[in-house]
Design a protein that fits this description.
Layout lengths: L1 H10 L1 H7 L3 E4 L12 E4 L6 H8 L5 E6 H4 L3 H9 L3 E3 L7 H11 L3 E4 L17 H9 L3 E6 L10 E4 L15 H36 L1
Parallel strand pairs: 1-7, 2-5, 2-6, 3-4, 3-5
Antiparallel strand pairs: 6-7
Helix pairs in contact: 6-7
Length: about 220
């Protein structure tokens, strides 16, 4: 699987540069040199979001959690999901086996990326989060790295990503509350952080446009 993933990365460098034309901003650039596993969490704007993050964290092996609907699109999509080592989640069957599989991946020092909205946002507004990603991070004892993308892809678009500070979820856990209450509270907390990252990205882009106009 890792061999196929690297083949995709290497052969996809030029198409990625043409299609995404991405610019990545970091709240803390130390994350760029990270060598430990983490749960990456982002808003969800398009099917291409995973590919964007795969090239954003180029030196890391990232395994996406993918919904059953993607496996049902066509044989090529199913093949590609297998090539990148996607972790399947069957939402209609309430199958939570993906949690254990994600923990196994993290224990092997690879990353897991989850889009907690559970579906693509039609308006790019950040939808409510499903809290399973918090449980995965807690059980695997790894940090969560929040991110936000503007979801702009294509020849005339420019993808923009902002990566936030890593979050130690264990420090957010309140023993006075139930497990379910903690999962929901931490999930909402991280959702708000990602919304704030979106606001920061917008401010950065507006400043750059203003500076470009004045120069």
């Amino acid at each position: 699987m890792k061999l196929m993933l690297w083949i995709i990365k290497i052969t996809g460098i030029i198409p990625e540069l043409i299609y995404f034309k991405k610019k990545v901003y970091y709240v803390n650039k130390k994350i760029k040199k990270r060598k430990y596993p983490a749960v990456l969490v982002s808003n969800h704007t398009a099917v291409m979001d995973f590919a964007l993050y795969m090239f954003t964290f180029y030196n890391r092996t990232i395994r996406p959690v993918a919904a059953e609907i993607l496996y049902n699109k066509n044989p090529f999509m199913t093949f590609m999901l297998k090539c990148v080592g996607a972790i399947r989640v069957d939402r209609d069957k309430y199958d939570f086996n993906f949690i254990n599989k994600s923990i196994e991946v993290l224990n092997k020092k690879d990353d897991v990326i989850i889009f907690p909205e559970g579906r693509i946002s039609p308006t790019k507004e950040v939808l409510d989060f499903k809290p399973s990603f918090v449980e995965i991070a807690l059980e695997a004892d790894v940090p969560i790295i929040p991110a936000y993308t503007n979801g702009c892809y294509g020849k005339k678009a420019h993808a923009r990503v902002i990566i936030g500070e890593e979050i130690n979820v264990a420090k957010l856990y309140d023993n006075k509350l139930s497990k379910n209450e903690n999962l929901i509270n931490i999930s909402n907390y991280i959702r708000n952080i990602i919304i704030e990252l979106g606001d920061k990205l917008y401010a950065i882009e507006q400043k750059q446009k203003k500076d470009s106009t004045n120069s």
